[in-house]
Amino acid sequence: MVTSMTGYGSAEEAVGEERLNIEMKSVNHRFLEIQFQLPAALRAREEEARKIVNDKVARGKVEIIVTHTGGLGRKKSVRTDWDLVQQYLQEARHFQHLDAFDGKLSLSDFLLDPNIVSIHEETTENDEAARAFMRALETASRRLTEMRSEEGQLLLEDVNSRLQHISQSLEALHEHIPRVQKRYQERLEKRMKALAENVDEERLLTEVAAFAEKSDVTEELVRLKSHVKQFRETLADTGPIGRKLDFITQEMSREVNTIGAKGNDQELSKLVIEIKSALEKVKEQVQNIE
C-alpha cells in the first residue's frame, strides 16, 4: 500500500474552561523523526505520546505542536527571604546611628528588591489536561494518517501511469532493435559494393554479427522489464516500501543508461530519452512514499 510521507492533522480538546490544541505536520525524511513542542505541564507525557505516533507513522519527519489557553497547571507564588529582610533592617539601624543619613526605609524598598522578594512559577501535572492531550493526539494522528493515505493514492495513480509509459517504450524498443540491425546490414552492404565489385558475403555476415553483439541490449531489456514488474509488486506490499522502491529505480536507471550507451540509432535514442524522462518522474514521486 502506498502512503505519502506528507500530511497534516489537528485536533482540539477542552480542559475545564481552557482549550488544548494539537497540530501535526509530516514531511519527507529518510527515517522516522518525531519532534514535540509541549507545554511544561505535559512534558512528562512525551514518551507515552511518542509511542502513539510510532504506531501510526513508520517514516518521515513529524512535528507536533501543542498550544493551550490559560495556565494549564502553572501556578505563580511570591517568595520572601525573611532572613535577608532582618539583615537589611539590622544594617539600616547601624546606618541611622551614624547620623549621616536622614532617609527612611519604605515598603517599596523591600518589595522592589529581587533579592528579597521574587515570583516563582511552578508547573504541576494536570491529569485532566494529560487525558485531553492523549485524546487530541489520537485524533490528530488519525487525521494525519488519513491525509497521508489519500496523498499516497494520488502518488500511486501517477506512478502507475509513468510505469505504463515505460512498459510501452520498452516494447517499442524490443520491436525496433531487429530493424536497427537490418538497416546496419543494408548500409554496410551498400558501402562494400561501392568499394568492391563483388561483396564478400562472409565478411559482411561477420561485420553484421559483430555489430549485433556490440549493440545487443536484450539482457538489459529483460532486466528492465523484471524491475518494472518488481516495482509494481512492491507497490502492493504492506508497510513501508519507499526505500525498496528507491533502490529499484536506481537499478532501472542503470539499465536504461546502458541501453542508451549501446544504442546507435536515432529512433532508439528517442525511446531511451522517453524512458529516462518517465523514470525521473517516478524517482521524484518515490521520494514522497513512506
Automatic annotation (TrEMBL):
Its cofactor is a divalent metal cation. It holds the Pfam family YicC-like_C. Residues 3-155 form the Endoribonuclease YicC-like N-terminal domain. It comes from the Bacteria. Residues 175-290 form the Endoribonuclease YicC-like C-terminal domain. NCBIfam families: YicC/YloC family endoribonuclease (TIGR00255). Belongs to the YicC/YloC family. This is TIGR00255 family protein.
